[in-house]
Batch of 2 targets.
Target 1
Amino acid sequence: MNEVRYALTLHCPNRPGIVAAVACALFDNGGDIRNAHQHDDGETRMFFARLEFTLPDADGENELRERLAAVAGEFSMQWALRRLDVRQRVLIMVSRFDHCLADLLYRWRIGELPMDIVGIVANYPRDEYRHHDFGEIPFDYLPVTSANKLEQEAALMRIVDARRVDLVVLARYMQILSDDLSRGLSGRCINIHHSFLPGFKGAKPYHQAYARGVKLIGATAHYVTSDLDEGPIIEQDVERVSHIDSADVLVRKGRDIERRVLSRAVAWHLAARVMVNAGKTVVFPD
């Protein structure tokens, strides 16, 4: 038997019977639930759930979708069904600082991040990254200026559409996306912010932190929205520092935090573990 593994994510106004209805739809279609997580947001009265299950084969997927659509109509439910053996198509964007890019490439190559990297877009020439082995990954150089920003964003969207990109990762891509581009990539663009938001914004955040004598530094991975650095937060981490640490030490420690925070956020998105709940997220555990 060639079982196929799926992840079903859903959210709707909370009321009795949701879990029972979804479970019956899966059972009636031969589904076998392997694990399940749910969350009831007491403030918004919204119910969130993620169910991982198998079907005997992929032939039953269309029928299951019909059953789930009927359940969704009854409960005013938003839902998504993802085959977990189908790898997400990911586009990575980068500027001069390439430590997050290097980390993503390493985790991809060892199989820790099950994705297909369909391109790397940079606003610096390829020679800037000559110490990286991109293999057969397409590389696109799209330098951005105030005069050509909209033109380059249009070129980026053509790449996204042509390569059927599921997720865009801003791996320290230091250009602000326009409102239109942010809306076009809503829910499928993750940024790593070099600070524990809310915190020190603008240029040289670690130097600002050093000048203020902070005792914690951090990083934040979030979905991109038209509100700069205000998108729903997926993951954060911090590290303690002290008065003996120079600004350069803070930068080095900050790079380590950024790498691990971004990789976690990408991994959870790939596994359909992140759901947007208004201005925040629900992140179901591994």
Target 2
Amino acid sequence: MKDLKGIFSALLVSFDKNGKINEKGTREIVRHNIDTMKVDGLYVGGSTGENFMLSTEDKKTIFRIAMEESQGKVAMIAQVGSINLNEAVELGKYATELGYDALSAVTPFYYKFSFNEIKNYYNTIVNETGNKMIVYSISALTGVMMGIEQFRELFENPNIIGVKFTEGNFFLMERLRHAFPDKILYSGFDEMLLSATVLDVDGAIGSTYNVNGLRARKIFELAKEGKVKEARVLQKESNDMIEAVLTNGLFPTLKEMLKCYGVDAGYCKEPFEKLSEEKIQRAKEIFKTI
């Protein structure tokens, strides 16, 4: 298994105007992240990849394309989470066969699952696949917020090796770092990278790293070196960009920015809207700030 620390892009996926996977463009996005953004790894199949709007076969196709194109050069994490546990296991087995270094799974959502049900979900995926697991905690989208004792129970399974912590609760982040120094802790909010790194996270996983990976790495490295003042300048620049991207439409804007790099990033799947000509021009202006 490769080292799972550092900066990971939550991989964007290129779709054509009809919502079909654009394989050529998706391969270009993978290469761009590795060759130009210099990321340490790719997080494939997450929210950024529009995963929850895809069929099981489309998800498998993306896992395959990303693994083939990465050519073993970076660490690879496959997000296989689903409220259909059978699908999560099927995807987990497939990604494991492809050679992914670890799996990740969002907490099961929509239904108000008990913690015991959530724990069984993770243990089942791990036990059925034989792979390592990164818990994906994003309560703003799932409605599932776990505390320190619940993470402690999950971590009793030695193959649950860490958490992608996409939460604004820095008290809990610090408590997790203190309680589980040997587990992998990722920051999941790009705009909070500096603050999370000061709390000694092992890495970060983010959508904007598809276009802002070099600056993100610099923030991460400066903070690790204790150069917080210098890192704050870069975090402010990143947050100016992030604020503009969010205002313009997150994923469609990131894809337009990738096109400025010469990458065939395609479109987002419906019901995401296609950008107006005005917003496309705005995306090009935001790109110039990188």
